[in-house]
UniProtKB/TrEMBL annotation:
<feature type="active site">
    <location>
        <position position="99"/>
    </location>
</feature>
<dbReference type="InterPro" id="IPR020456">
    <property type="entry name" value="Acylphosphatase"/>
</dbReference>
<dbReference type="InterPro" id="IPR036046">
    <property type="entry name" value="Acylphosphatase-like_dom_sf"/>
</dbReference>
<keyword id="KW-0378">Hydrolase</keyword>
<dbReference type="Pfam" id="PF00708">
    <property type="entry name" value="Acylphosphatase"/>
</dbReference>
<dbReference type="InterPro" id="IPR001792">
    <property type="entry name" value="Acylphosphatase-like_dom"/>
</dbReference>
<feature type="domain" description="Acylphosphatase-like">
    <location>
        <begin position="66"/>
        <end position="156"/>
    </location>
</feature>
<protein>
    <recommendedName>
        <fullName>Acylphosphatase</fullName>
        <ecNumber>3.6.1.7</ecNumber>
    </recommendedName>
</protein>
<dbReference type="GO" id="GO:0003998">
    <property type="term" value="F:acylphosphatase activity"/>
</dbReference>
<dbReference type="InterPro" id="IPR017968">
    <property type="entry name" value="Acylphosphatase_CS"/>
</dbReference>
<comment type="similarity">
    <text>Belongs to the acylphosphatase family.</text>
</comment>
<feature type="active site">
    <location>
        <position position="81"/>
    </location>
</feature>
Length: 156
C-alpha cells in the first residue's frame, strides 16, 4: 500500500529532510528502475515527496527539472532575451539566456516541472512581441535535486 501522498514515509518515521532519494530507493524495486525521465517523474510525483529537498523553496511535490533550449527564427534584435528573462522570473524559474553567433537564442531553464513546461510553451509560441519563432528545440532534460542558479540571467 502506498503512503499518503502528503506525508513522506521517511519523514513520518523520523527521517531527515532528504526525502526524495530515500523514498525512491525504498519504494521502487530494482527491476523497475528504467533510465527514462518520464517514468522517474511520474513515480516521484506519485510519492508526493520529490520536492522536499533542503534549501529549496519550490512548491511541495513538484519535481525539479533542468532543460536546455535553443530558439530559431527572428529572435535577435527584438528584445527576446529580455522578455525571456522576465517570463522566467515571473514563473519563478532560474537559468540563463544568450544570443548565439548563428542568430538563435539559447539557454537553460530550471525549476518545478509544471513551470518549466509553461516556459517551454512560451518559448515555442510567444516570445517577445516583435519576434517570429520558427521552432524551439529542447534537450538534456533531467531531474535535479537542487537548483544550480539563484536567478534568471541574460548572458552577453
Amino acid at each position: 500500500m502506498l503512503p499518503d501522498p502528503g506525508v513522506c514515509p521517511s519523514r513520518a518515521k523520523g527521517g531527515g529532510p532528504g526525502c526524495a532519494p530515500t523514498c525512491f530507493r525504498h519504494r521502487m524495486p530494482a527491476s523497475a528502475r528504467l533510465p527514462r525521465a518520464g517514468l522517474l517523474l511520474a513515480f516521484l510525483g506519485a510519492l508526493g515527496c520529490a520536492g522536499r529537498v533542503p534549501g529549496l523553496s519550490m512548491a511541495e511535490g513538484d519535481t525539479l527539472i533542468s532543460v536546455d533550449y535553443e530558439v530559431f527564427g527572428k529572435v535577435q534584435g527584438v528584445f527576446f532575451r529580455k522578455y525571456t528573462q522576465a517570463e522566467g522570473k515571473k514563473l519563478g524559474l532560474v537559468g540563463w539566456v544568450q544570443n548565439t553567433d548563428q542568430g538563435t537564442v539559447q539557454g537553460q531553464l530550471q525549476g518545478p516541472i509544471s513551470k518549466v513546461r509553461h516556459m517551454q510553451e512560451w518559448l515555442e509560441t510567444r516570445g517577445s512581441p516583435k519576434s517570429h519563432i520558427d521552432k524551439a528545440n529542447f534537450n538534456n532534460e533531467k531531474v535535479i535535486l537542487k537548483l544550480d542558479y539563484s536567478d534568471f540571467q541574460i548572458v552577453k
